[in-house]
Amino acid sequence: MKKKLRNIFLSIFGGYRMRSFIFSCSAYIRRKNLYKYFSDQFDYGLNKNILTKEQKFEIDKFYKKNYGKKIDYKWHNLFTMYSGKFDVKYMPFDMFLKFTDIMNTKRNYYEVLKDKNFLYLCANFAGVKAPKRFFYSINNNFFDSESNIISKEEFYEKMSNIGEAFIKPAAFDNTGFAKNCRIVNMVDGMDVYSKLSIKDLIEKFYDENFIVQEKIVSHKSISNLYSKSVNTFAVSSLIWNNQIKITNCILKIGRGNCFVDWNGLKSGCLLIGINDDGTLFDYAFCIGEKKKYYAHPDTGVEFKNYKIDLFPKVRETVVKLHSSIPWLKFCNWDITFDCDGNPVVIETERPVGIDPQLSLGRSCFGDNTEEILNFLKNDDKG
Predict the structure, then answer these.
(1) Is the pLDDT confidence value at 265 over 70?
(2) Phi and psi at residue 305, in whole multiples of 5°?
(3) pTM score, whole prediction
(4) Residue 225 and residue 325 in one domain
(5) Does residue 363 belong to any structural domain of this protein?
(6) Quick one: 88 and 231 in the same domain?
(7) Is the pLDDT confidence value at 22 over 50?
(8) Residue 50 pLDDT greater than 60, yes or no
(9) What b/e string do you get for 193-221 counting C-beta neighbours within 10 Å, with b at 16 or more?
């Protein structure tokens, strides 16, 4: 009897459909929390309806034609309020999550992507440079740059005079962001910045999974904007109609002595759109702030007409990278350029639908929006 009950329980809660249901509930909670975050952050509140009757009519017409029914205006209202630009093709976040789930039905692969060591396999296969990895730990097993397993004592000894390096967790936490990313400068076993020994530093801030990388020095065309962080291009790519398409790209820029370009909604870092020719949009945003930044608040560099000539390489690099993991049809990539102008992949992760639409003031799927809505409509019909 107990065995029969166990099998019934596993058939219900261990099956794919139940896992999908649980994932959908989790996605619902995420989008509700995210919307509440914006509602709490914006001093003018999201309850203020700024859409005109004409804009609402345009939304109704567009979505009835391509999706088969009307939608709630709240996400269009949010994106328009935040960016100052109206786009009938804005993708509501709940629909974005649904599309992401359909495109990436093999969610276990995303679990692999959570381990940042996987990035090196992906980059090596695609022939794309990744930050040099000095050491890494997986389940408390230590490896050197050549992937030779070493003892913890050897790791501490070899780290003791490595100089400047960047340490980060090998996986993000439940918030979706990495904590305790830090630059160290190891001299005689002590970190010059934190005044901790390498042993104390690892035991205090890191579990059994972390990576020690080189400190990236960005190309001057990127570092001139702000040199204290590694500023990166956040690029979304989609396998659609037998092509790898770049759906959107924004540049993430650090500020305020922050050495990471982005680590959560409250990080204070800047997001700015970039045109196909490499010129930046006229102004940047900081999520959670109403203010637009026409120049970097620390360096004073103006964004208008600022051009990054290397930008076309970003698209080429992302296509190569996505070709290496075709099982995932929709991905996000963080790309920068080293001091010699070579593309460097920093991260790969699940795509996001909020940041690009807020920063770009247009749909995260651009000209593909109509096709994607029709795809979702047909999926609803089952």
Answers:
(1) no
(2) 70, 5
(3) 0.84
(4) yes
(5) no
(6) no
(7) no
(8) yes
(9) eeebbbeebbeebbeebbbbbbebebbeb
Q: pLDDT value at position 212?
A: 97
Q: Domain for residue 364, yes or no?
A: no
SS3 (DSSP) at 91: coil
Per the CB < 8 A criterion, the answer to whether 129 and 216 are in contact is no
Same domain, 112 and 240: yes
**Per residue in 56-112, pLDDT tens?**
999 999 999 999 999 999 899 988 888 889 999 999 988 998 888 888 766 666 677
Residue 328 lies in a domain: yes
Q: Nearest-5° angle of CA 99, CA 105, CA 110? A: 100
144 shares its domain with 162: yes
Question: What is the spatial distance between Cα 55 and Cα 192, in angstroms, rounded to a whole number?
Answer: 57
Residue 215 carries which DSSP code?
A: P
Would you state the pLDDT for residue 269?
Answer: 84
Quote the strand ranges of the chain, DSSP E: 133-138, 141-144, 149-150, 163-169, 182-187, 190-191, 210-213, 232-240, 243-253, 270-273, 284-285, 292-293, 330-337, 343-349
Long-range contacts at 188-191 (CB < 8 A, ≥ 24 apart): 188/160, 188/161, 189/156, 189/160, 189/161
Tally of domains within the chain: 3
Residue carrying structure tokens 């100089």: 163
Q: Provide the domain limits for residue 297.
A: 108-129+218-349
Identify the pLDDT of residue 316.
95
Tell me the one-letter amino acid at 49: N
Say if residue 174's pLDDT is above 70.
no
Domain boundary among 196, 213, 230: 213
Please check whether residues 273 and 166 belong to one and the same domain. Answer: no
**Does residue 83 belong to any structural domain of this protein?**
yes
Q: Contact, 34 vs 93, CB < 8 A?
A: yes
